[in-house]
Amino acid sequence: MQSLPPAGSPFSSGPVWSSRSTNPAVGTPDRVDLATSPQEALIKPGRKKETPTLVESPRPKPEQTRSSALSVLGSRGHAGMAAGALFGAGLGPALLPNLEGPRPRAATATPNGWRVPANPSRTPVQPRDPFEILPASPELGALRVVASSTGRIRALRLQWPEEFQEPAFSAQKAVFHDILTRLPADVVVHIVAEGLAAAALPAMLSEWPIIDPGRIHIHGLHLHSTPEQLYEPMTMWARDGAILMQTAEGAEVLMLPRSFRGDGQVDSKLNRRVLQGTGAAPARLQQALPDLLVRRSGLSFEGGDVIASKRAVLLGGQSLAANMADLRLSREAVLEQFVQLMGVPVIAIEPQPEFHLDLGFTFLDEDTIAVADPGLSMGLVSNRADLAPLVQATRDKQLSEKYDRAARRLAELGYRICRLPNLCGLGLTTPYLTYNNVLMENYLDQGLPVRKVYLPVYDVPELDEVARATFRQHGYQVVDMPSARLSTKLWGAVRCATGDLRVTDG
Tell me: the pLDDT tens digits for 396-407? Predict the structure, then answer.
């Protein structure tokens, strides 16, 4: 085991459950206020007076699908209800002092669904970023996206949402337990924790068998809704909000998309600025880690649609189409911009089988891509009545045909193709059986190769064993990540829940 980075490094260890989140601009610990100046880079070129398209998340928004402690904190007199929800999750004592006073509401429940109120002021709200993030600029030199298939994981970023109800809470807890106890003990972890949850997280982590807890750092994110801004709560899906890149000298650059799902833009019907917790979370780290370079791209993307090796990137066709519409550019022009951003050739997967590529595509090495195979999977579980709903959902979405078509095209481009099991899930009720949504390590340690895969498993032996055997055939040591049984009910597994912060060659 190698030692942690030296003191003073942005990824060095510190006090147990350290919180390095003071905002020097306001001098208040664990609080983030809006930037004082608009971020022009967030606004579409030449279209400042037009309404931006707010992309709906493929994963459901919390207020649409489940109740939470946050949802009953909107007015005076509801602290007791919130406390009851927190006590049910085993968190009440830690958070009860924080439940006093009103909290601005983003939405209210009605018999016909949730109602989001408009801004009562008629003065137009302007687009603005909650953080001062510089756009990508030439002084950084040529950048290159960090590969998913090679290197040694040194530091990760996670997100802990302010969510205490099921099924979300158990899924979050299971994912964190797997990542913090099954990955190597020298991986540094920076957790952006939202609102009240930031106060409860240390007590929960202290109960787990975590080696060297000083390597784990918690940073509070405290954004909220007001009449002028609508705050969409953070999710645990850290991968969505940024990708990790490197300069030619090896410095890490956290690259944010142009505007994550409308983050910082204005909903013209509501006259309210949209703030996305998942869009703000990676930007929040710039305050906590001053040596970390955080920049904003001129392109829209989500990390789940960027699958990189050292020589190429697979890009979701939906990202390509969204930028063509937003920027009013041709497919070729947008593709060239992605090539310039990524620093390597880009292969667009069109049509895109699922909402994120990392549910079904994985580079195993520079020449081999594992592609999901729903057709094989349906045959292997044909006698499992309990999986019949997943089989039917997979057929309804025609996933077998879509993945087969993508596999043929990648083979035509010269890649070796292997196949992994895959069955579509039913949100909030069943897992989504993806074996592509993995973390991987592939490096040399004192001249000896180390190849590990942190693999989602589901207690479905017919498929779990096939996935394990496939990775082992390619030289990987398999580390099971059983949290996927819960987390994929919310459409994500271990890769979705983690964002790279530092990856080295050895």
Answer: 999 999 999 999
Helix (H, G, I), strand (E, B) or coil at 41: helix
Q: Output the pTM of the full model.
A: 0.83
Q: How many residues in the chain?
A: 506
- Using CA atoms, how far apart are residues 122 and 124, in angstroms rounded to an integer? 6
Residue 401 has a CB neighbour count (10 Å cut-off) of 13
Domains of the chain: 63-103 (no CATH), 116-504 (3.75.10.10)
Q: Which two tokens stand for residue 239?
A: 């991968």
Cα 66 from Cα 219, distance rounded (Å): 25
* pLDDT of amino acid 106: 61
Q: Is 81 helix (H, G, I), strand (E, B) or coil?
A: helix
Q: Is 176 helix (H, G, I), strand (E, B) or coil?
A: helix
Please report, as a single letter, which amino acid is at residue 137.
S
Contact 352, 383 (CB under 8 A): no
Which of 10-24, 49-63, 201-215, 227-241 shows the lowest per-residue confidence on average (mean pLDDT)? 10-24
- Structure-token pair, residue 202: 């240390």
Residue 417 CB coordination number (10 Å): 15
Q: How far is CA 320 from CA 76, 330, 357, in A?
A: 46, 10, 13
Which residues, 6+ apart, have CB-to-CB distance to 113 below 8 Å?
Answer: none
